[in-house]
Structure formats: structure tokens, C-alpha cells
Design brief:
Layout (H helix, E strand, L loop, with lengths): L1 H27 L3 E6 L2 E7 L3 E8 L2 E8 L5
Antiparallel strand pairs: 1-2, 2-3, 3-4
């Protein structure tokens, strides 16, 4: 049960990092970097198609990606 909760918490933190990465991209045109939350390093990368965050999950490397959609 604790492992499952920790995985969910880290996925939540990856979503926070994704949001911060989007802010950095819009304000400073930064396309990659890392943030650390609770001793876990979350690496983010933004390209033309998606925003991805990679991090160490409880059971190994994990990633959380979302596609970028155009707003016209």
C-alpha cells in the first residue's frame, strides 16, 4: 500500500514539475531542466510535440508526458 501511495505522490509531483516547466518555457524559453521535490529529481524536456518529465519511481524509472495542442 505504501509503495502505491508513494508512486501516486511522485506522479503528482511530476505534474507540478510539468506545470512549472511550461511556465519556464513561456516566460524564458527554457526547454529542459530539472527540479527536486522531497529529494527526488524530476527532469523535464519540452519539444514541438510534448512535455515530458522523467523521474525515479519506487519501482524504477518513470515518465509522465503530455502532448502539446495548438490553440488557434
Amino acid at each position: 500500500m505504501n509503495v502505491k501511495l508513494e508512486d501516486k505522490k511522485r506522479k503528482y509531483h511530476s505534474a507540478i514539475v510539468m506545470n512549472e516547466a511550461a511556465k519556464l518555457f513561456v516566460t524564458e524559453n527554457i526547454k529542459n531542466g530539472s527540479l527536486t521535490i522531497e529529494s527526488v529529481t524530476f527532469n523535464f524536456q519540452i519539444d514541438e510535440q510534448q512535455v515530458c518529465v522523467e523521474y525515479e519511481g519506487v519501482r524504477g524509472e518513470m515518465n509522465n508526458c503530455i502532448e502539446i495542442s495548438s490553440v488557434n
